[in-house]
Amino acid sequence: MERRAGSANGLEETLSAAMAAAQAGDADAYRDLLRACMPVIAAAARAKGIRGEAVEDVVQDTLMTVHRARASYDPARPFLPWLRAIAQRRAVDLLRHQGRRPKEAHDPIAYEGRADDSQPAAGQGVEERERNSRLARAVAALPEGQRQAVEHLSLRERSLTEASALTGRSTGALKVNLHRALKALRSALAQDRRDGDV
Q: 148 near 51, Cβ under 8 Å?
């Protein structure tokens, strides 16, 4: 147990130092960092239930996020929890995406656990598309800061830290923009209902 803890501490120190060097412009340290992150990311993906080739997809998506968000990493804080949080979010994103894709007809496992095979009620798909279309129009009509807050925090379910790194806005500004955006969306959608569009 102590040996494993020592090994984890050593990895933390190595990765933290490599990230700090990479932030200072050391390209070799950055390449070494990304290479060393791969098994950590893969383990985090597997822990979330990702299997097979999809693990590599999560690894690649996570490395891209690390690359985009590397300036937001604070060298005074532990690196591994930061990395694992990103990896877990990318794994969840992939699971959500897979959940939306139609299942293959020849995949017997895809149909296990289904409550019933009933078809949606007639017109249900049309109503859902119309609702989604109204919501998309309402989001598109928001001011840029509010729209970014909704897209990153609500629709893509990114953390405040990730959204801040991607948008260049402070976490406080993102919180305020999200609050204002949700209020504006409620008002716009309520107006649609009053106008009979819902």
A: no
**Burial label, 192 (beta-carbon count in 10 A; 0-12, 13-18, 19+):** middle
Percent of residues in the chain assigned helix, strand, coil, to nearest 5? 75, 0, 25
| Token output for 129 | 């598309």
Coil, helix or strand at residue 174: helix
Task: Summarize pLDDT for 92-151 with one digit per residue, the tens.
Answer: 998 888 775 544 444 444 444 444 444 455 555 677 777 777 777 888 888 988 888 888
Pinpoint the alpha helices (H) of 48-103: 54-69, 79-100
Per-residue CA distances from 100 to 21, 94, 97, 103 (Å):
40, 10, 5, 9
**Cα gap 59→38, rounded to integer Å:** 6
Q: What crossing angle do the helices spanning 124-140 and 171-194 adopt, rounded to 10°?
A: 130
